[in-house]
Amino acid sequence: MTPQPPDELKRLAARLRTARQLRRLSRLPSEHGDSVSFAVLGDVEPCRFWTLRKLFNQEGVFAEQMEEIQRQPVKFIVQLGDMVEKGEPRRYEDFLRRHARAWRGGKPYLTVIGNHDRSRPNGRSHSTLYRGLFGRANYAFDHAGARFVVLDSSAKRVSAAQLRWLDKVLDTPRRKIVFTHMPPVHLGLWGGVGRLHSLGGFIGGAREFSEIVSRRGVARVYMGHVHAFGVQDHQGVRYVLTGGGGSALFPSGNADRFHHFLTVELTPHGIRERVHSLDGRVFHIPSAPVILPTREHGTFWTALARRARRRVARVCGV
Fold first, then answer.
1. Fewer CB under 10 Å: which end of the chain, C or N?
2. Contact between 150 and 140 (Cβ < 8 Å)
3. Helices and strands, number each (H, E), in the chain
4. Minimal CA–CA distance to 111: which of 78, 152, 87, 142?
5. Which DSSP letter does residue 279 get?
6. What DSSP state is assigned to residue 4?
7. CA 278, chain centre distance (Å)
8. CA 134, CA 141: separation in Å to the nearest integer?
9. Which residues have C-beta within 8 Å of that of residue 137, sequence separation ≥ 6?
């Protein structure tokens, strides 16, 4: 039997359930071809390790950025995951109580599940509590002539069933925007080599994901997980890394590590994106293509096969 969230926790989270937020958004004026503006906010969990939190975290960033977002002329907000340090009832309750003021501005607030929102941030885990509080982890909605898709990459992979769903839901003539917590691992948006780089993205289904969003003509993929900012154009799709919602700015090999959020304006003439940094600076993301090298990372089985081939070669004297 699937455990249910405590009643008090369900009550606290009820206002943020995805279905409720989408109903609120659907009541706002929207016509095909209209412009729409929205905000994107990255990772906000403060780090569950006291020492690292003291070294790299800055208190109050999420609340401060949410106050600023509520003043922006945007229709809705998407938070890209990692709202809590670990997906436990007490941590969700603390987050919802501590930040109750953040949602008083009235803008619909949509969540994406991150790996920290699961029962464990690393290793084998499940998303039962998140789904019990907020609803589906994979969902899509239409607004102002565009289709918005939220894809769960929190398990550090995207399954074959998810890829089939993604391909189907992106089969539309509407403009298409995708939100997911983790980037596909082959992007070069963040630093590190080998294993260190692979920690920043999902491996399973990554190439298939990029093929689908490219073939379906997705305009943007917004991602978090790495606490930094970056842009990369890959196979005709622009990927925007925006992980500076309030989490600790760990050294990641990415020079652009700063707290920020995005405001995005979709118009019939294109997409305009502004980066709002915590210190008040605002700058546009240029439209010129950003071409970066990709990285190769195999799965466990491909790595095992590679080691086996090397061993056979040594035995055979090749």
1. N
2. yes
3. 10, 12
4. 78
5. T
6. P
7. 19
8. 16
9. 113, 127, 130, 131, 150, 152, 154
CATH fourth-level superfamily of 7-315: Metallo-dependent phosphatases (3.60.21.10)
- Residue 181 contacts residue 81 (beta carbons within 8 Å): yes
Angstrom distance (rounded) from CA 87 to CA 111: 14
Structure tokens at 264: 């995005």
**Cα 292 from chain centroid?**
20
CA-nearest of 232, 247, 196 to 81 is 247
pLDDT digits (tens, 9 = 90+) for 44-87: 998 766 566 666 778 899 999 999 999 999 999 999 999 999 99
Cα–Cα distance measured from residue 92 to residue 97, given in angstroms and rounded to the nearest whole number: 9
**Cα–Cα distance, 314 to 311 (Å, whole number):** 5
Q: Global pTM?
A: 0.90
174: number of Cβ within 10 Å? 15
pLDDT in tens, 140-167: 999 999 999 999 999 999 999 999 999 9
| Domain edges within the chain | 7-315
Q: DSSP E strands: which ranges in 33-75?
A: 36-41
**What is the rounded distance in angstroms from the CA atom of residue 165 to the CA atom of residue 267?**
27
Are residues 183 and 205 in contact, defined by beta-carbon separation less than 8 angstroms? no
